[in-house]
Design goal:
Layout: H1 10-18, H2 21-24, E1 27-30, E2 33-44, H3 50-74, H4 79-86, H5 89-92, E3 93-104, E4 107-117, H6 118-132, E5 137-142, H7 150-164, E6 167-168, H8 171-178, H9 182-187, H10 189-198, E7 203-218, E8 221-236, E9 241-251, H11 262-289, E10 294-301, H12 305-315, E11 320-325, E12 330-337, H13 341-349, E13 352-353, E14 357-364, E15 368-375, E16 389-397, H14 401-415, E17 419-426, E18 429-437, H15 446-459, E19 464-466, E20 473-478
Parallel strand pairs: 5-6, 5-7, 10-15, 16-20
Antiparallel strand pairs: 1-2, 2-4, 3-4, 7-8, 8-9, 10-12, 11-12, 13-14, 14-15, 16-18, 17-18, 19-20
Helix pairs in contact: 1-3, 6-11, 7-11, 14-15
Amino acid sequence: MRKIFTVVLFTALVISLSADPSFSARVRADNSTYFIEDAEGFAVIVDGKKQQAREQAKRMAYRDAIEKAMEMFSGNPDAEMRNKVFAKSQSMVRNFKITSETISGDTLFITGSCSVGERAFDGVLGPEVISMLGNPRIMVIVDEEGDKNASLVEEELLSIFEKAGYLIVDREQAQTLLALDPKKAFSDPEMLTAAAKTIKADIIIVARSSSGARHAQRFGIHMYQPSGSVQLKAVLTKTGYLISSSRVSRGTKNWQGNSYAGGFVKSAAKQAAEEIIYKIAYKMASAGSSLGGITVNIKLAGASFKDMENLTAYLKETGQVFERNYSPEMSELDLVSPKNARNVASLISDYSLPNGKFIEVDGLTAQTVSAKVKQSAPGKKEEKKTVQYVVINIFLDKLDEDDARRIEYELGKFIGQAGEVQGDYQDPVLKINVKIAEGSDGAKNVYDIEAFLKNDMKKKGVDLLVDRPEGNSIKGSTSKRFWW
């Protein structure tokens, strides 16, 4: 299982850390960039080679700069995540300048100033947070009446969010179910909040685009200056709260012979999505991470007060439990633990209540589990059978980190709700354990997974050489000709 690291909203961090004069003197944030004034490093001078020692000291100063910026950006990630960030420190640090250099004995000490952009952290931390949350389910709704280029916006947003690791909920089905009007959603927050609480997704992205073109005649020729803009709202369905928004406009000052603005609208949609794509994940994780884990909301129908007491005691062995609401029709509690929603669903499904009752899970998103209490048939104390699991072990060699992450993400989508995928990448080896409940809907076997790795992953850009399975074990490697 992946290690869970603490992710705290950087807005809160900026406030708390800027209150500390000693910290603000070292790191300053401005326009999504962190400026570090005292990145420190040192190295031993060997055989009088001062320049070599200076380069070694600079590399240490890069790490120091990254660590100081990371404290402001995301709190205190675990050792595994810090190492991933440090491995890329040289490319993340910009405008490094040595401000002081001293030699004490045979050791050279330097202090430098530099800058680190938020987007540099996004590229490392963002995907990890999305994966940690269990790949949140997201639904994109575009106001198609607002602009003739709305379909371009929808296509671009779906592509960007899916590539980042979000799971996409069918938008047509949700609109039919709720008769949701995107145009009205922008002007009626109450309607959007009500819809958000009903939809089986973690996040709703409501988008509106507009485009046009200035017109003029130059030497009797019709000329145009096209432009486009996109506005996005991201609503957390668990609470109905607006958690992020962005608005981007694109255009040209040059005159051209046609009024087509589709390219500007598409470009605006891309930038607007990139501005919020990781902020959404950080905010989803922030409530739980401030308490030390992931927050999963459990809604349980048909539970007695005694049932809730028993379940609460059981879940307290896993993490912190917060009771939100009780009624015989629907009770609600939050579990804060290292487990994501899929893990929690398995946890409560395996729990048997007294008097022959059991819990049946009937809904799941990345942040919520919906379930109901069921009664075993008369004369049977335990109608619920013990679930048997099949574990398939996968060992893939000679992979770079990008390919490893892609394989793990695509395999998780392939397995779906039929099981769990747990990956561990240690350059250059990716080890994956796939746990599948026997008889579950959509259950896969070892040969299904072998075929997926051989064929489907090739279509997705990762060409693998996979050996014939031995029992429930699969081995393979990349087919790249040259690998170091």
